[in-house]
């Protein structure tokens, strides 16, 4: 009887794992959707999409409850089966020990055997009751596996980065998945200290991915990236990132005061924070705010305009006086006058600049322009030389955008 109980509970546990994995997977997607809907609530209301959002939420909730209800029904059947099995087994054991197989056992020994057998069956029943929790634990562990198995950065290792050095990409390629088309492929170029290099091209052709490779947010699948002659993999990453002022596409401020946002993880004086705000063209806006640098921002920079959010991110990037500035569409929301003032402020710092921009007026002062398509560099040269090239991609982009 114990063997039968164990076999039944094993089958049930396996079924519970499947049902709970399905329910948890749908619940995670539902949570992701709800988070996105809350963050995009103004856009949802503007598009009058409330009925669509509610219908989708209702559908997802029903999908979560379906396997959950089946799991609860199975658990109820198992509980009833377990109770009945224990009762029947105890009665059977008592009958057998009282008669056919009693042998020389006295009454005390019979009671002891029945009590021991009852305890064993109770333990098996409890094991069956844990099958649901085991299923949930297995499902959660499976979801966490990519995170738990990912390679962690060793912050204590790596050679120190030289104060200034050239940046070299040598046939670097990268894809986000094993079977995915490479986001960047066979990329080779060099950036000298103090040089201003701009990347242009249609959206979705690898410019942002290429910028993520430099601070080590992603590692190239093939080829190499060196800074100051040292392989990126051999460099102390925190040291490299401290020397990089990075503003990635759609980066958002975190909740806290403006001073805390500009300071980031560093330690700034108020005068240094004001200097960074001035370089980013944000000083006048901050002085008009009720509490100046002590004005509290909500999560995501709610209450700031798109241009103010971008300049706040720029101020944080410039506050640590970086040797390398990496900007991904960091001034796309600024008007032309503010953008020119910010570009002039950054240019006066004499730092190495690698900039992605769709607004071509921002790259006309670059030392070099890299034109990308399909994850490759198809043109490279100064803005003037590329404009003069017949049938050139950059020339066509300038003609369509600037006239």
UniProtKB/TrEMBL annotation:
<dbReference type="GO" id="GO:0016887">
    <property type="term" value="F:ATP hydrolysis activity"/>
</dbReference>
<dbReference type="GO" id="GO:0005886">
    <property type="term" value="C:plasma membrane"/>
</dbReference>
<feature type="transmembrane region" description="Helical">
    <location>
        <begin position="117"/>
        <end position="140"/>
    </location>
</feature>
<dbReference type="InterPro" id="IPR039421">
    <property type="entry name" value="Type_1_exporter"/>
</dbReference>
<keyword id="KW-0472">Membrane</keyword>
<keyword id="KW-0812">Transmembrane</keyword>
<keyword id="KW-0067">ATP-binding</keyword>
<feature type="transmembrane region" description="Helical">
    <location>
        <begin position="77"/>
        <end position="97"/>
    </location>
</feature>
<dbReference type="GO" id="GO:0005524">
    <property type="term" value="F:ATP binding"/>
</dbReference>
<feature type="domain" description="ABC transporter">
    <location>
        <begin position="167"/>
        <end position="399"/>
    </location>
</feature>
<keyword id="KW-1133">Transmembrane helix</keyword>
<comment type="similarity">
    <text>Belongs to the ABC transporter superfamily. Lipid exporter (TC 3.A.1.106) family.</text>
</comment>
<dbReference type="InterPro" id="IPR036640">
    <property type="entry name" value="ABC1_TM_sf"/>
</dbReference>
<dbReference type="InterPro" id="IPR003593">
    <property type="entry name" value="AAA+_ATPase"/>
</dbReference>
<dbReference type="Pfam" id="PF00005">
    <property type="entry name" value="ABC_tran"/>
</dbReference>
<keyword id="KW-0813">Transport</keyword>
<dbReference type="InterPro" id="IPR027417">
    <property type="entry name" value="P-loop_NTPase"/>
</dbReference>
<keyword id="KW-1003">Cell membrane</keyword>
<dbReference type="GO" id="GO:0034040">
    <property type="term" value="F:ATPase-coupled lipid transmembrane transporter activity"/>
</dbReference>
<protein>
    <submittedName>
        <fullName>ATP-binding cassette domain-containing protein</fullName>
    </submittedName>
</protein>
<dbReference type="InterPro" id="IPR003439">
    <property type="entry name" value="ABC_transporter-like_ATP-bd"/>
</dbReference>
<keyword id="KW-0547">Nucleotide-binding</keyword>
């Amino acid at each position: 009887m114990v063997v039968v109980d164990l076999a039944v509970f094993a089958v049930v546990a396996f079924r519970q794992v499947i049902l709970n994995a399905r329910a948890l997977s749908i619940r995670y997607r539902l949570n992701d959707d709800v988070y996105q809907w809350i963050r995009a609530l103004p856009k949802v209301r503007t598009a009058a999409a409330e009925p669509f959002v509610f219908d989708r939420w209702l559908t997802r909730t029903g999908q979560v409850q379906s396997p959950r209800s089946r799991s609860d029904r199975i658990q109820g059947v198992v509980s009833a089966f377990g109770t009945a099995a224990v009762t029947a087994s105890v009665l059977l054991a008592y009958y057998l020990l009282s008669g056919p197989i009693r042998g020389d056992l006295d009454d005390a020994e019979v009671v002891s055997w029945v009590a021991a057998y009852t305890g064993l069956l109770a333990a098996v029943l409890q094991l069956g009751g844990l099958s649901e929790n085991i299923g949930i634990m297995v499902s959660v562990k499976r979801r966490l596996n990519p995170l738990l198995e990912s390679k962690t950065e060793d912050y204590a290792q790596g050679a120190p980065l030289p104060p200034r050095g050239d940046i070299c990409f040598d046939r670097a390629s990268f894809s986000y998945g094993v079977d995915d088309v490479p986001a960047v492929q066979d990329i080779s170029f060099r950036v000298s200290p103090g040089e201003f290099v701009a990347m242009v091209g249609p959206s979705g052709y690898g410019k942002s991915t290429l910028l993520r490779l430099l601070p080590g947010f992603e590692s190239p699948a093939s080829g190499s990236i060196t800074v100051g002659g040292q392989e990126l993999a051999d460099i102390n990453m925190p040291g490299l990132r401290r020397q990089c002022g990075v503003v990635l596409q759609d980066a958002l401020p975190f909740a806290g005061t403006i001073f805390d946002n500009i300071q980031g993880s560093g330690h700034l004086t108020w005068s240094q924070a004001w200097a960074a705000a001035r370089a980013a063209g944000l000083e006048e806006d901050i002085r008009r705010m009720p509490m100046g640098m002590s004005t509290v921002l909500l999560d995501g920079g709610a209450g700031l305009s798109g241009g103010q959010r971008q300049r706040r991110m720029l101020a944080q990037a410039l506050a640590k006086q970086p040797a390398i500035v990496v900007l991904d569409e960091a001034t796309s929301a600024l008007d032309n006058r503010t953008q020119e003032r910010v570009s002039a402020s950054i240019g006066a710092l004499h730092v190495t600049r690698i900039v992605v921009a769709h607004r071509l007026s921002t790259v006309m002062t670059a030392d070099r322009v890299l034109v990308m398509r399909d994850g490759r560099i198809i043109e490279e040269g100064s803005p003037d030389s590329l404009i003069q090239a017949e049938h050139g991609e950059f020339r066509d982009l300038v003609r369509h955008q600037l006239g």
